[in-house]
Amino acid sequence: GARDGRIMRRVILPNALPPLIVSATLTVGVAILFEAGLSFLGLGDPNTMSWGLMIGANRVYILDAWWPVTFPGLAIFLSVLAISLVGDGLNDAFNPKLRQR
Predict the structure, then answer these.
(1) Which of 17, 18, 58, 84 pairs with 66 at a CA distance of 20 to 30 A?
(2) Where are the domains of the chain?
(3) C-alpha closest to that of 33 among 46, 47, 18, 44
């Protein structure tokens, strides 16, 4: 007997929000990885500095100097991991099934 707006606010939105948040954060992580991969291959904008471009430009020196490749790779890894963990934390915070415990 409730109106459509009330049903959407009280039932549908709380149950749809956690999967949307997780999907959005995973999409941001994938976008970072795609951009770094394309820049590594030389398909990105050469005027814009990115982690993939840093790795791609320094890959010829990897046997002599490991740090120009390792630190941008770690930055990519830590950024994607942090974004994924934030998404997981938001899922735990907004999931109505976990709130009942």
Answers:
(1) 84
(2) 4-99
(3) 44
Q: What is the DSSP string of 20-56?
A: HHHHHHHHHHHHHHHHHHHHHTT-S-TTS--HHHHHH
Amino acid at 25: T
The model's pLDDT over 75-84, given as tens digits with 9 standing for 90+, comes to 999 999 999 9
| Number of CB atoms found within 10 A of residue 18's CB | 19
Alpha-carbon gap, residue 40 to 96, rounded angstroms: 41
Decide if pLDDT at 101 tops 70: no
What's the rounded Cα separation, in Å, for the pair 21 and 25? 6
Place of tokens 């010829």: 60
Angle at 56 between CA 50 and CA 57, to 5 degrees: 90
| Residues 11-22: tens digit of each pLDDT | 888 888 888 998
